[in-house]
């Protein structure tokens, strides 16, 4: 007997909540850990990268520049996949929770933390004063701190 749409939706919400609360337990239930999957993807990307080098060199030796371009594209794509797998392996639990919350938002948009806002003073706008006034203000602050 198939599940209704509401039951499927509730099941997906429960699964998302489980992944947000305990990603390690959720990956254990799936049969593979997130770290193992990321490591496997990174190793596969490394092998494909080596294959891309071989295709690139084959194109250079044979004189067909189109084959060399294909080899370069293979290398570029595999490096991108490998780096994203390694970067995903290093995400902290807090970042994973923030990404899951942003993905769970109905509009698909979420708040992105980061940037340089944490170093600025809240009472001062970015465009206050001329460029030279801002540079002079920074210089005074550095001299007062003893740098």
TrEMBL record:
Keywords: Membrane, Transmembrane, Transmembrane helix. Residues 114-133 are annotated as: Disordered. This is DUF3040 domain-containing protein. The chain crosses the membrane at residues 42-61, 67-86. The keyword Transmembrane helix applies. It comes from Nocardioides antri. InterPro entries: DUF3040 (IPR021401). Pfam families: DUF3040.
């Amino acid at each position: 007997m198939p599940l209704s749409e509401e039951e499927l939706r509730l099941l997906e919400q429960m699964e998302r909540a489980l992944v947000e609360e305990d990603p390690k337990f959720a990956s254990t239930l799936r049969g593979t850990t997130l770290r193992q999957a990321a490591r496997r993807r990174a190793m596969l990307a490394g092998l494909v990268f080596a294959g891309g080098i071989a295709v690139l060199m084959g194109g250079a030796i044979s004189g067909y520049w189109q084959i060399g371009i294909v080899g370069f594209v293979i290398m570029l794509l595999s490096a991108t996949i490998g780096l994203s797998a390694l970067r995903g392996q290093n995400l902290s639990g807090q970042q994973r929770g923030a990404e899951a919350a942003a993905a769970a938002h109905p509009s698909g948009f979420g708040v992105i933390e980061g940037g340089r806002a944490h170093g600025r003073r809240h009472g001062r706008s970015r465009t206050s004063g001329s460029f030279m006034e801002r540079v002079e203000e920074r210089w005074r602050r550095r001299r007062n701190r003893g740098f």
